[in-house]
Design a protein that fits this description.
It is a single chain. Helix 6 packs across helix 7. The chain starts with a strand and ends with a helix. The protein is globular, with a radius of gyration of 20 Å. It folds into 2 domains: 129 residues, Rossmann fold, CATH 3.40.50; 71 residues. Strands 6-7-8-3-9-10 form a 6-stranded mixed sheet, sandwiched between helices. The protein has a 4-stranded antiparallel sheet with strand order 2-1-4-5, covered by helices on one side. It is α/β, with parallel strands linked by helices. It contains 7 helices and 10 strands. A hairpin with a 2-residue loop joins strand 4 and strand 5.
């Protein structure tokens, strides 16, 4: 039976110099869903994504991606990673950008047209990337990540800086991909995007403070606004930290 987990993280520890980013966290990303990785800037979202795609040096722990160790050569055609901001070559046309990626992956030429249609970029295929708007460039970056029909797409804040209309268009595309069987892991610090996900992982200070669904998040916090719900979870987590600190002080004082 196929494992229902696209990603399994166990005991992950990551340090950058003297800074401890993670200290033994664990989590699961389910196949065929859109999982939102949310949290404030500096909470570890990018480090976690880099660890999952195998480009981050880790101190300890295990990460299994599509039943293989993270970073394995066999995952190169099965996992796509979109970094923050657009990652396009400005002096190439949209089609040339996609053809370049297809050549690297040794994907068939038909992939270029397939992806152009999927992200609705046919009308811009012969325009240079440096002549595109910010939203169009972001769409090209996503198209480049989709070459080769990956099973898992990892996107680091793909909607940052986009207006609400473009953000809504991208999320429509994400849901179309998910309905086609693709697993998506999408990081964001925009809390209203939480409601567009199937599942949520909320990070704070390098810890997973909630593994939930949008509906459960709102129900557990008793609010209707996702940002207010996240702030409520942060306050709850901070209360636990303060209680733990008081208990430690009492034990230290005998």
């Amino acid at each position: 039976m196929m494992n229902t987990a696209a990603v399994q993280v166990s005991g992950l520890s990551v340090r950058r110099g003297r800074v401890r980013v993670f200290d033994g966290i664990g989590l699961t990303i389910r196949r065929g869903q859109i999982t939102g990785l949310l949290g404030p800037s500096g909470c570890g979202k990018t480090t976690l994504l880099r660890s999952i795609v195998g480009v981050q040096r880790i101190s300890a722990g295990e990460i299994t991606v599509l039943d293989e160790p993270a970073g394995s050569p066999g995952l190169r055609h099965r996992v796509a990673y979109g970094t923050q901001g657009s990652a396009v070559y400005g002096d190439l046309t949209v089609r040339q950008n996609l053809a370049y990626v297809a050549a690297i992956l040794k994907a068939p030429r038909s992939e270029v047209d397939r992806v152009l249609a999927e992200v609705d970029l046919f009308s811009h295929a012969d325009r240079r990337a440096d002549a595109l708007s910010g939203g169009q460039a972001t769409r090209v970056s996503l198209a480049m990540a989709l070459i080769g029909a990956p099973e898992l797409v990892v996107l680091d804040e793909p909607t940052v800086g986009l207006d609400p209309v473009l953000r809504a268009e991208l999320w429509t595309l994400f849901h179309t991909l998910s309905e086609g069987g693709v697993t998506l892991l999408i990081s964001s610090h925009v809390m209203d995007e939480a409601l567009r996900c199937d599942r949520l992982l909320l990070l704070r200070d390098g810890r997973v403070i909630a593994d939930t669904t949008p509906q459960r998040l709102l129900a557990d916090t008793g609010v209707t606004d996702p940002e207010a719900a996240f702030l409520a979870l942060i306050d709850r987590d901070a209360d636990v930290d303060r209680a733990r600190s008081r208990r430690s002080r009492r034990e230290a004082n005998g």
